Amino acid sequence: MGDRLRLYQPDNALLFSNLDARRPGYQRAVRLARDAGYEPVTRLAGGHAAVFLEASVAFAWATADPAAPMHIANRFETFSGWVVAALRSLGLDARVGEVDGEYCPGEYSVNVEGRVKVMGVGQRVIRGAAHVGGVITVGQTVELQEALTPVYDALDLAFHPPSAGGVADFDPNITPAHVIEAMIGVIEPEYREVQESSFDSSILSAAQTLMPLHSAERSSDAGAVLRPTLKTSGTKTLLQGDDPPSNIIDAENKNGGHD
Fold first, then answer.
1. In sequence order, which residues have a C-beta less than 8 Å from that of residue 174 and are 6 or more positions away?
2. Residue 3: its pLDDT value, please?
3. How far is the C-alpha of 183 from the C-alpha of 188, rounded, in Å?
4. Strand-pair category, 39-42 with 50-52
């Protein structure tokens, strides 16, 4: 079984974390998200609120690893490196690292020119496998900033709006399709085989059963347990019970694994 990577344009949504759900202003933040026209959902990785926009590229990378908790930083470094290489191939000065005042801060965020965060990433680990997910913002910078500002205020979290943006702020000709093509171009040489695939009925059925876990109104500790002693400093990681990955790109690593 090879790695599974899904690259896709999402619907507009505002994703909260379990940490957000424990904050006093969480219910107000959920209402503000809905008032702004975003469906609020709870993700299973750590960190804080993030916006997925139609003019962005979301990603979900599932990989088998019998020693998954030992390789958290390696996976973050690998995926952030892919994103930086892809954006640089599009002519952008992309870098790995946190910028001052960014939303959902993390040391493996990707920024452009050291000043605007364009990619956020989180990770969850289960027995024998790991999942790295997040979003690369392409356009809709105004919508991104306007959605996050009141939500972060309600959660009483620091956020500097100019630190959030998309790659099209630096080159308006770049589209989500260009970013997906660039990502595949970077990843493909590392693998023996990369091919597009679609969801089968068993994955779709499993996803339907898991939807209640992502309700913004669910209990903040339902279905997930944060274990900070196993976190790498500055990363956003959640360890939990088994759950099925999703995919559109199947890949077999040339070296049999990333870590």
1. 90, 92, 138, 167, 168
2. 81
3. 8
4. unpaired
E strand map for the chain? 3-8, 13-16, 39-42, 50-52, 56-64, 94-96, 110-112, 116-126, 129-137, 191-196, 237-239, 249-253
| Beta-bridge mates of residue 123 | 132, 237
Q: How far is CA 47 from the centre of its chain?
A: 10
Three-state secondary structure call for residue 37 = coil
The contacts of residue 60 (CB under 8 Å, 6+ apart) are 4, 5, 6, 131, 132, 133, 245, 246, 247
b (16+ CB within 10 A) / e for 213-247: bbebeeeeeebbebeeeebeeebbbbbbeebebbb
pLDDT tens, position by position, 17-34:
888 999 999 999 999 999
Number of residues that this document lists for the chain: 259
Instruction: Give the type of residue at 48.
Output: H
- DSSP-assigned letter for residue 257: -
Give whole-number Cα distances, 81 to 207, 220, 223, in Å: 29, 32, 31
Contacts of residue 37, defined as CB under 8 A and 6 or more positions apart, other chains included, come to 12
How many CA within 13 A on the CB side of residue 8? 16
Q: Which domains are seen in the chain, by residue range? A: 3-253 (3.30.930.10)
To the nearest 10 degrees (0 to 180), the angle between helices 141-154 and 26-35 is 150
Quick one: which of 68, 16, 6, 72 has its CA closest to 39?
16
Identify the bridge partners of residue 181 per DSSP, sorted by sequence position: none
Range in 36-40, 92-96, 220-224 with the lowest mean pLDDT: 220-224
